[in-house]
Amino acid sequence: MASVAGLTRFLLGKNVINNSRAGAIKFYSTAPQYENIKIEVVGEKKNVGLIQLHRPKALNALCKPLFKELGKAVKDFDADKAIAAIIITGNEKAFAAGADIKEMQNNTYSSNTRDGFLQEWEDVSNCGKPVIAAVNGFALGGGCELAMLCDIIYAGENAKFGQPEINIGTIPGAGGTQRLPRYVGKSKAMEIVLTGNFFGAQEAEKMGLVSKVFPVDKLLEETIKLAERIGTHSPLIVKMAKQSVNQAYETTLKTGLQFEKSLFYGTFATTDRQEGMNAFIEKRTPAFKND
User: Fold this and answer.
1) How confident is the prediction for the chain on average, in pLDDT?
2) Which residue is catalytic, options 69, 92, 120, 145?
3) Is 165 designated active site?
4) Active site residue 157
5) Is residue 228 annotated as part of the catalytic site, yes or no?
6) What is the pLDDT of residues 194-234, one digit of tens each?
7) 3-state SS, residue 103
8) pTM attached to this predicted model
9) Is 145 known to be catalytic?
10) How confident is the model over 29-78, as pLDDT tens digits?
11) Dihedral sign from CA coordinates of 99, 174, 208, 87
């Protein structure tokens, strides 16, 4: 809402927001059943699900209705066998400039606990398919946390990340204090969370939060290329690989290695593993069947 935009302008300066180039990225048709997002199937093989957060007047502030729609779109793409990977993006001004402060202003400890505040966010992290964040502009507070819910983050060179919750008397509540140290280490995470300072795309790449940085007008194109590259592999094996990598953040090394080996052994029960190795030996392109 306006309060989120106001906070961002106060912290960063109004001119920074107004200087971003509008309209350079072409997005796709609006799905009529959604009010706060746009979706489309893209890529040469039409196997990439694209979700654009679409609350431009509020800098894509993450209100509950938006996240319900986002969760539904993610689950629908996850269930669609034709979709290999999912991209979540915003616009050039903002990926998402935080949670909707006006919406949560009158929340209480009791209401948060009773209603399971923010539980809709789990729909993104529970997705079995790879989810890629394409971040231009502001990814602040909940926006930064949403990006970290994704499996890979690509950023435009104008992207700004941060966890500024400390400035309004609260702390990150959707994974900021937990995922950020796993990406950037304890010291850097402490600095980011305790100061509320913003940092740019190049610094985010340097610290390991972002995989790659691109010119603003090339970000979506390059993100789609990444999703298409993932889509050339067996969907079943991609899902198993994602599970194995995620396990590294949730367990000890010894337990993680055991989990990895178990999944590795499991691939030998699939026809896709057999097809992949046969194709390599025969020097041809594999024809995976997700089996």
Assistant:
1) 88
2) 145
3) yes
4) no
5) no
6) 999 999 999 999 999 999 999 999 999 999 999 999 999 99
7) helix
8) 0.87
9) yes
10) 444 489 999 999 999 999 999 999 999 999 999 999 999 999 999 999 99
11) negative
Give the rounded distance of the alpha carbon of 6 from its chain centre.
24
**Tell me: the pLDDT tens digits for 141-160?**
999 999 999 999 999 999 99
- Residue 41 to residue 46: CA distance in whole angstroms: 6
| Phi and psi at residue 164, to the nearest 5° | -90, 15
- Options 71, 98, 142, 156, the catalytic residue: 142
Q: What is the CA radius of gyration of the chain?
A: 20
Q: Read off φ and ψ for residue 49, nearest 5 degrees.
A: -90, 120
Cα(16)–Cα(68) distance, integer angstroms: 30
DSSP string covering 215-252, please?
-GGGHHHHHHHHHHHHTTS-HHHHHHHHHHHHHTTTS-
What is the spatial distance between Cα 129 and Cα 82, in angstroms, rounded to a whole number? 12
Q: How confident is the model at residue 6 (pLDDT cuts 50, 70, 90)?
A: low
Residue type at position 287: A
